[in-house]
Specification:
mainly alpha, Membrane protein, transmembrane, 89% helix, 150 residues, membrane, elongated
């Protein structure tokens, strides 16, 4: 059971790290090429679409599974604890920075230039950090699997 939980945590962490990486290297640079209305309406659409069971399963599942794995995997525990900590940091960044920015963008009206100016640079910067910490969490969990096997 411990191995199954750890591997599930690795898969979920990899998926969520990949998502934030994709935002950092393709979604946001792609939206940045558009005009203010395109940028704002594009982000609004993404913010609505992303709140779905598949995303929530991986987004919440990765840190939850890593937390459970801390207690089930005494051997590679330092790696699992580090991975769990990174994934919790990803949740905190999302809850403290990303979601409030997304909410403000969603209810901000139609002054697209002002909305974009208040949103884009901050969101992009914090998303890069979120991509880094979730990738670090994924890497730590992979190290835990490798330590467990070797």
């Amino acid at each position: 059971m411990a191995a199954v939980v750890l591997v599930a945590a690795v898969v979920a962490a990899g998926l969520i790290a990949g998502l934030f990486y994709a935002y950092a290297c393709s979604v946001m640079p792609g939206l940045a090429r558009g005009d203010d209305k395109t940028f704002v309406e594009g982000m609004r659409g993404i913010n609505i679409a992303i709140v779905n069971p598949v995303f929530l399963l991986t987004f919440l599942g990765a840190p939850l599974l890593a937390g459970v794995a801390v207690f089930l995997n005494p051997g590679p525990r330092p790696w699992v604890i580090a991975g769990f900590g990174c994934l919790v940091a990803m949740l905190v960044i999302t809850g403290v920075v990303s979601i409030p920015l997304n909410d403000a963008l969603g209810r901000g009206g139609d002054d697209y230039a002002a909305l974009r100016a208040r949103f884009e640079a901050t969101w992009v910067c914090w998303n890069v950090l979120r991509a880094l910490v979730s990738t670090a969490g994924f890497g730590c969990l992979v190290a835990a699997v490798l330590t467990r096997r070797g």
